[in-house]
């Protein structure tokens, strides 16, 4: 039976790299990202269904859930889409609370809402959830408090979900620094260019999916 995956933030970076690898393995893909112009060529390349939109938008999440249902369920949900928050990275003492509230909607509430919407199908097919985390969830890095707080919350949601849903594998993955647009926005293009490419994380994710180890936090390192 052909396996189906839903990947958020799939138009670039880690989401795109993983989508290409899964497509090469014969997976059927549902891909989403905010920019339709960037997402369409990816979907055309991979023979995937593209549904552009913001995962923080409940209407868009409903569209994604309906698409999953129409395809008979889901084997893999990858919550990769993420926001950075305020830039330049501010200290918590002056972090804009409206920006932080929006960041929690994107980085925490949206992944949980997608999990809730697709969980029946994931249970039925003994599927898996991959939530992309960060070392900022566990480390005290100046300026990364807002982003790190959202990833720490996502880690704990993943941890409890794993305990509550024994038939669904749940991994929250810290990919380490990657040369992505987000990292460049945070630290500058020069420093970001020195980081490994997101494709270097894909073997870790493929190994998880193929071998299905116990649910838990996974670091590429």
From TrEMBL:
**Keywords associated with the record:** Oxidoreductase
Specify the superkingdom: Bacteria
Q: Which InterPro entries match?
A: NAD(P)-bd_dom_sf, Sc_DH/Rdtase_CS, SDR_fam
PANTHER family per record: DEHYDROGENASE/REDUCTASE SDR FAMILY MEMBER 7B (PTHR44196), DEHYDROGENASE_REDUCTASE SDR FAMILY MEMBER 7B (PTHR44196:SF1)
Q: GO cellular component terms?
A: membrane
Q: Which SUPFAM superfamilies match?
A: NAD(P)-binding Rossmann-fold domains
**Recorded family membership:** Belongs to the short-chain dehydrogenases/reductases (SDR) family.
Q: Which GO terms describe its molecular function?
A: oxidoreductase activity
Supply the CDD domains for this chain. Answer: SDR_c
What is the protein named? Short-chain dehydrogenase
Q: Signal sequence span per UniProt?
A: none
